[in-house]
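User: I'm writing a tutorial on reading structure tokens. Could you give me a worked example: one chain, its sequence, then its tokens, then a sentence or two explaining what the tokens reveal?
Assistant: Sure. Here is the example chain.
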Amino acid sequence: MQNHHTPEHVQFVLDISIKTKRRFEVLHQSLGFSSKAKTFEAIVYLVSIEDKIDPEILKKMDIKLDRLLDILEYSR
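And here are its predicted structure tokens:
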């Protein structure tokens, strides 16, 4: 593992299952962040804002996003 000495950054080690590691690898590849650290930050950020946003608003946003994706898919 590379050891980067970047200001305001620390190394963070986790003991996780193989299944979780594979799931993270898939997320990392599909999200397209340039590093695993950025992918991890994005996941932590998402989880932290979900606690602050009304679940009904998130549900409505998901529905609208699904509709938009359907429209884009059928317009091809």
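What the tokens reveal: The radius of gyration is 17 Å. Residues 64 and 70 are 10 Å apart (CA to CA).
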